[in-house]
Amino acid sequence: MTTNNFGQKLRSLRLQRGLSQNDLAEPGLSAGYISLLENGKRPPTSEVILRIAARLDVSPEVLSSAQEVSAQPRATDIAEPDYATQISLLQGDLAFADGDISAACDIFEAALENAVHSVADQMEAIHRLAHACEHLGELDRAVELYRQWLDLHQRQRGSGWVHKWLVCATALTRCMLELGRLDEAVTFGVESLAQARTLGVHETPPAVELASSVQYTHHCRGDDGRTDIDSGAVEEAATAFLSRDVQVAAYSEAARAAEENGDQESAHALLVEALHTKVMESRAVAADRVAVTAMAHISYQGGRIPAQLQLDVRPAVQRLQGHGTAVDAALGTAGFANILLNSGESEEAHRTATEALATMPAAYRLSRAQTVLTIGRALRDLSQYQQAQDSYESASALLIDMGLGWLGANALFELAEMLEHAGDASGALSVYRTASKTLRVPRGT
Fold first, then answer.
1. φ, ψ (nearest 5 deg) of residue 241
2. Mean pLDDT in runs of 10 for the chain (445 residues)?
3. CB under 8 Å to 37, separation ≥6 — which residues?
4. In the prediction, which pLDDT does 302 show?
5. Rounded to whole angstroms, how far apart are CA atoms 438 and 400?
């Protein structure tokens, strides 16, 4: 019996160097072909080994010696988890919980390299590594890893893991949205929502976050009228998750549906999630993030949040700041700033958005742009027009640089209206002209 050691070694070396398959590709060695090599669907020739070794700056023997090794179980066979790998994963979890996410990444990377006998172990390591990369701000790499996990899950039909599939699908959509890859986010997100409904997990917190992300992506594309997602239902479900009992009930109901469908493994995983949500503050903040994010998306689109919900959101943001990662805290705080702004609390909104921006990783480009825009709007409401203009122009430039011309133009139109209100007619006219030209810039894909 043989194993695809070459593909595993190639993937491990590539990821160690922070390279995507596209980065490794060159004329005559496409990213698609590299994917086939890594998945064991094409045997490498001697020439290919030499070329890849040169690209990775390793000896060709490092790759050729891994080409075929006998007497080992195939990596595509599900096997019992290896305890050494499980110990490494737990050590990485501890580092992540301590806030040392960079160290956690290193541990998960090593666990993935060693998890050659069990797809289950590989998937656990990939999922954790992707999550850690996302919270480090390495979003391109997180996207690649989440896709790798989903590909393995699809090939292991009947292996369950429905909840983890949904978490990965939601995270992948979230990362693509932040990177401005809107068409990909919408297409994948809509497909995943349909599958979540089929699997009976469409009312759990990750599915509600996914629906909110798809809805917001439509807004960013200027397609508010082209989605069948009920924004009112998303808002109602998300705000309900501010109650931990509602979170637990959602997971428990999904577990019941999975058990009725004969999927005992998924039922078990969903009940474990219900239990963890019930007893672990760090796990419950995931639903806090869902609620805050969904309400922030609504406010970004101009919706108003009822006064009582605003009061309920504040402790949720505090829980994110106390028990979530730095990224959770920054994004939650930024969303709350926009909610405050829409409630007329401009001074607190400005202070809150400024604090969030200071701690938000640079890779979160869309959230940073929206936060800068929140700062500009707050300054406008405080009649600090020159500072507001600087923020509007900065937000517009960030959005246009991402290829989101429609959002960038909207920011400029708001700036022009502010200048006109402030009595600067010539400045307003100039900005109106720039905004009109911006609308002809191709939309982000």
1. -75, 0
2. 68 85 80 79 78 87 65 43 82 92 94 83 93 93 93 71 90 93 92 90 89 87 70 78 86 88 82 85 74 76 68 82 86 90 91 95 93 96 96 95 90 95 94 86 45
3. 6, 7, 10, 44, 48
4. 67
5. 8
Phi, psi of 75 (to 5 degrees): -70, -15
> What is the pLDDT at residue 225?
60
List of residues 6+ apart from 327 with CB closer than 8 A: 134, 135, 137, 360, 361, 364
Can you tell me the distance from the alpha carbon of 2 to that of 391, in angstroms, rounded to the nearest whole number? 59
| pTM, to two decimals | 0.75
Task: Give CA–CA dist 178/418, Å, rounded.
Answer: 28
Q: Do the Cβ atoms of 407 and 374 come closer than 8 Å?
A: no
Which residues, other chains included, contact 97 with Cβ-Cβ below 8 Å and sequence gap of 6+? 282
pLDDT at position 66: 64
CA distances from 72 to 5, 141, 371 (A): 10, 30, 52
Q: How many angstroms separate the Cα of 138 from the Cα of each of 8, 216, 257? A: 22, 22, 36
> Given this model, what pLDDT does residue 75 score?
43
Q: What pLDDT does 70 receive?
A: 32
Taking the CA atoms of the chain, what radius of gyration do you get in angstroms? 24
The dihedral sign for the CA sequence 42, 46, 51, 54: positive
Q: 413 near 435, Cβ under 8 Å? A: yes
Tokens of 122: 């590989």
Q: What pLDDT does 226 receive?
A: 61
**SS3 per-residue string spanning 85-111:** HHHHHHHHHHHHHCCCHHHHHHHHHHH
* Residue 230 neighbours by CB under 8 Å, 6+ apart: none
Q: 10 Å Cβ neighbour count for 424?
A: 16
Number of H helices, E strands in the chain: 23, 2
- Give the end-to-end CA distance of the chain in Å, rounded to a whole number: 44
Q: Residues 194, 231: contact at Cβ < 8 Å? A: no
Helix axes 162-178, 244-260, angle to 10 degrees: 120
Q: Which letter does DSSP use for residue 67 in this model?
A: S
Q: How far is it, in rounded angstroms, from Cα 87 to Cα 37? A: 30
